[in-house]
Amino acid sequence: MYKTFKNSQQTVTSFLDYDSLLAENKTKTNGYLNVALWLCALTGPALALGVFFGVFKDVSYSTCILLSLFVIILAFSHFILVRRFPESDLTSVYSLFVLDLLLAYMAISNVYLRLTWFLVPVLSLLFCSYRVYFVSVTINYIVMVVITWITAPYYALHRADFLTAPEYFGNVVWGYTIETLIMTIAGLSIVRTFHRYSKEIYNNYATLKNREGMLQSSVDTLASMAGIYDKVNLLDFRSMTEMPITDNAHLMKTLNIDKCDHTSMVMNIKDQIAPEQLDNFLSFTDLKTLRERLLDKKSIYGEFINISTGWFRAQYITVETNEDGIPVKVIFTVQNIERDKRKEAQLIRIAMTDELTHLFNRRSYDDDIMLYRDTGLDDTFTLLSADVNGLKNTNDTKGHAAGDELIKGAADCLSEAIGDLGKVYRTGGDEFIAILHIDDYREICEVIKSKSSIWKGEYSDSLSISIGCASHNEFPDATIDELERISDRRMYEAKDNYYLQSGIDRRKRRQKPTN
Asked: How far is CA 167 from CA 320, 336, 428, 454, in A?
């Protein structure tokens, strides 16, 4: 927050205003991102190694070379902008756009890396600018949609769960759209929270730098934080004292690190910490290492569980440093964040849950399958595919409310039958997939059939579900994709058998004549 100017006669220290501080942050962040862009030029050689060892089978060496040249050109152009316009929003947005172009190039080149499009908007938060953030989100979304459209034919061809490119495009973009909306709201909250708290800390810091009447001034300023935090303590490492700001009496206590390496506030609440988090909490609040951990940082925080009140955030905020940059005055705050955690968990549930059936959705299934791709399959791993029979006929004759009733009925039968033995996902209109961990799936299939046979609804008196299963134990050499195709094939065979026995022409979806 300070800049020092030296001349032959005196040293002048100038206090930066808040806008200047943000401009300096933008300058430094642009510099760091330019270094990151130059390092991205190593992506080409890294991909070339992958091609050499057979990891990237659809990538050529020429693609690797062009990628590095492409990144070098963009990094150099950004370097020029950084030199000429270091504080410009254009420079900031351009660096993020370059990263979008890098992801787009790799996607078009069929390079599959575990990188997310949403990394770029997250990086834009470093600039602490609403304008940069919104422009970054908008450009990122547009590039993401365009590239998804371009690559949809390729991925639809290599995915067993999609029949056409438009189907794949619609599914993926819909997921991207939901994620973008959630991320935009969360990012806006982060930027807004940063500005609010940093301005408060900034003002407190400026006040505390005034040596005349600094103690009383600190108390008056920090007392305003009582409405934000549940507990606020001022730690003074010069006088080795601890003063609770939220306590009206402001009783000062002595800090004796040699005899007790934690504050009295920590000692008062440590018995309420969840046992599995106690060691981490005591490590985070250790005064012997606190100032070292705060070095060159404005604040550090940790989130823990109070067994009585739920989640809370403990935070140390640097208020004043000595000439060596070592914190000498620190604010220790405790804030209940249980409500925020519940909202966060609710957002995650919404993003990962099907609205109609309350089962896990396609995105959740894809995420879980990705974990299995990384960790491998055990012998009990089983995929179960299920589909509702006669749904179209029900929709045509009784209406979509009746069709939705059948879908929810099937979801209930599947989830009740499977229980704790696995997870059930709704992956399409009337299509379901379950990941099971069982030795023999036949019993589960019988339970599902039994439950569906006795099901009755408001619009329909019967429910029929076609099921297909494939286990790793049954096909030890099959990949996850192959197991999925096998379970789908068996499910469709069961569906064909159902319509054959029922005398229904699936192509015309009407009852065949009996004579």
From this structure: 58, 44, 11, 35
Higher pLDDT, 169 or 348: 169
* Nearest CA among 204, 253, 166 for reference residue 18: 204
State the SS3 of 289-316.
HHHHHHCCCCEEEEEEEECCCEEEEEEE
Buried/exposed code over 153-166 (b: 16+ C-beta within 10 A; e: otherwise): eebbeeeebbeebe
The token pair that represents 414 in the structure block: 């599947």
Closest CA to 15 of 27, 30, 3, 29: 3
State the Cα–Cα distance between residues 278 and 351, nearest whole angstrom.
Answer: 32
Instruction: Report how far apart the first and last C-alpha atoms of the chain are (Å, whole number).
Output: 91
pLDDT class of 248 with cuts at 50, 70, 90? low
Task: Encode pLDDT of 382-414 as tens digits.
Answer: 999 999 998 888 888 899 899 999 999 999 999
Q: Please state whether the predicted TM-score (pTM) of the whole model is above 0.85.
A: no
How high is the pLDDT of residue 7? Answer: 43
Alpha-carbon distance values, 285 to 158, 159, 253, 262, 507 (Å): 51, 50, 17, 6, 69
